[in-house]
Amino acid sequence: MSIEWITILFFGGMLVILATGLPIAFGLGGLSLALAFFLWGPESVSMALLGTISIVKYTLLVCVPLFLFMGMMMYYSDIADDLYTAFEYWLAPIPGCLAAATVGVCTVFAAIVGSEEPAIMTMGSVALPLMRKRAYDKSIALGCIMAGGALGFLIPPSIIAILYACIAKQSVGMLFAGGLFPGLVLSSLFITYIIIRSKIQPHLAPTIPKADRPPWREKVRCLRGVIIPAAIILAVTGSIISGLTTPVEASAVGAVGSIVAVAIKRRLSLKIIQDSLLTSIRLTTLMMWIFMAALTFGQIYNALGAREVIETVMTALPIGRWGVIILIQLTFFILGMFLDDTAILFITMPIYIPIIIELGFDPIWFGVLYLVNMQMAYLTPPFGYCLFLMKGVAPKDIGMGDIYRSVIPFVAIQGLGLAIIMIFPQIVLWLPHLVFGGG
After folding, report:
1. Per-residue pLDDT for 65 more than 90?
2. Cα–Cα dist 439/437, whole Å
3. pLDDT at 418
């Protein structure tokens, strides 16, 4: 059987398994082992399983559960309430201030927790009721929460960025530095869109009346709520980017700092620590199962010679180096509709990274393109993890149709941001080169 037919059967079978609702780790891993058994016999299955032990060499993965723990502790600390109040008070005069404040809080939250889940859960509980009380349209209220939450993919300390650094053998510090400014650019694009649309269609996001706006004394007082998040961001992300600590050391600092932050908020309890630990363990375990399944897939697929075939075909296509990059972005977008971001990472990157290096592209820049694609993937059906998170915290009168429609303009903005980053690579590369040196 040719490698082309094996590829078609493999990916076709994977989509069928996903359609049944089977967890992707077991579906992908089981299908890989079944293919190995069919092609080479039972001995190949044990060899493939032994190959997954290579996961232990990724010592950088130690920081994943620590960053997750930090994020969950910050989620339980109610710091988001203080952040939201500060943004709401200072942005009160502008159109769509509550939605803009939501994106602002999500941006800061992304720089603390490194994932999308806590931001969407928190803003869905804190910001959504207030926006609905102020008669905000669902298309603005829901979309800004999900788009803002997805910034956790890009703004450091992004968990998936750490995994990319493991696979691509790149500096986490450089990748964090590369994702910081594009993340702020996307956040600014979201806020700009909200302001412009609220100005054109004021009924979608009514401005807060002057009588209801806080006085200057309250605006200054609420800035106290920004001190703790700013200190944690500086301690974690700042220390990694500046080279003062390794990512593992910074994650430990962040985990301890989150405990201190919760204690300062007088919410520290054994239950909060237990809940944070259990959630972190659950998410880490899920991620590791996907990691091992994708490693098994990669070993078997590479043993068939598929990697070399794909590299040869893509580099020989008569579409030029930029055509190849665009084609890769399309594969990310399509795969993101069906697969988890971790699975996409470990399936595609061992194939794509040698290609982009051979074509003369920077792996840090390419990693940021991948992260932006995963933001879009988490907002697009049918997988759309952010969509399901939003449904879980939204009131019962909000249906999936409302949620789907609300993300369309924000996905389009992310597409625009992706194009801007592709056209102007220095948006990504200037800060890593400034901090770490190089071209």
Report:
1. no
2. 7
3. 95
pTM for this model (two decimals): 0.83
Cα 234 from Cα 228, distance rounded (Å): 10
Q: How far apart are CA 140 and CA 195, in angstroms?
A: 11
Selected residue with higher pLDDT from 200 and 308? 200
3-state secondary structure 81-106: HHHHHHHHHHHCCCCCHHHHHHHHHH
Spatial CA neighbour of 276 closest among 255, 257, 294? 255
Check the CA dihedral 191-112-406-337 and report its sign.
positive
User: How far is residue 345's CA from residue 349's CA, in Å, rounded to a whole number?
Assistant: 6
Taking residues 34-49, report their average pLDDT: 68
Sorted by sequence, the CB contacts under 8 Å of residue 430 that are 6+ apart come out as: 181
Confidence of residue 430 (pLDDT cuts 50, 70, 90): very high
Residue type, 314: M
Contact 109, 78 (CB under 8 A): no
Say what the pLDDT of residue 159 is: 83
SS (H, E, C) 337-399: CCCCHHHHHHHHHHHHHHHHHHCCCCHHHHHHHHHHHHHHHCCCCCCCHHHHHHHHHCCCCCC
Q: 22 with 4: CB under 8 angstroms? A: no
Residue type for position 279: T
Q: What is the largest CA-CA distance in the chain?
A: 76
Picking from 361, 277, 369, the residue whose alpha carbon sits closest to that of residue 320 is: 361
Residue of 419, 409, 335 lying closest to 372 (CA atoms): 419
Instruction: Tell me the pLDDT band of 409, cut-offs 50, 70 and 90.
Output: very high
The pair of three-digit structure tokens given for residue 170, joined into one six-digit string: 């790149």
| Residue of 130 and 36 predicted with greater confidence | 130
- Dist CA 293 CA 278 (whole Å): 23
Confidence at 424, pLDDT banded by 50, 70, 90 = very high
Q: Which residues contact 239 (CB under 8 A, 6 or more apart)?
A: 245, 249, 250, 253
Q: Is residue 439 pLDDT above 60, yes or no?
A: no
